[in-house]
Design a protein that fits this description.
The protein has a domain of about 90 residues. About 30% of the residues lie in helices and about 20% in strands. It binds zinc ion (ZN).
């Protein structure tokens, strides 16, 4: 059973460049732990105007938003085919989730939520003293 959600509001920042995203789709994915147990969940895939403009799969959606800025009732029929093409690709080529992806997401989250820390070791946490 495929459970796909397309988000157009309150979008996260791009995990690659930190810029705004155009659309976000949540697709089912699974990964196998080192002990062989399969973990099933959802992966959030964001479409970034900057990072995805050159990808043939996503360039149609990016071009749509360059021209139309947002999806309205009048532009829905123009948006649907390019968004469908992107979602079809995402669901048939689910992104592999790696440790590097996790590190990137953690770094992005920290950059957005902690402007005073410069701890790049990743082993600390929010418990250290922070003299101001
Ligand atoms: Zn980006």
């Amino acid at each position: 059973m495929t459970d796909i959600n397309v988000l157009v509001d309150e979008l996260p920042r791009c995990g690659r460049c930190g810029g705004p995203t155009l659309l976000v789709v949540r697709v089912p994915h699974s990964l196998r732990r080192p002990d062989g147990v399969a973990i099933h969940g959802h992966r959030t895939v964001a479409l970034c105007a900057r990072c995805d403009a050159e990808d043939p799969v996503t360039s149609g959606v990016v071009a749509f938003f360059v021209v139309h800025e947002s999806i309205t009732a009048d532009t829905l029929t123009a948006a649907a085919p390019v968004i469908r093409e992107w979602i079809d690709h995402v669901t048939t080529h689910p992104p592999a989730y790696t440790d590097a992806d996790l590190d990137d997401e953690i770094a992005t989250w920290r950059a957005e939520h902690d402007t005073s820390g410069d701890d790049a070791s990743g082993g600390g946490g929010p418990d250290g003293p922070d003299p101001s």
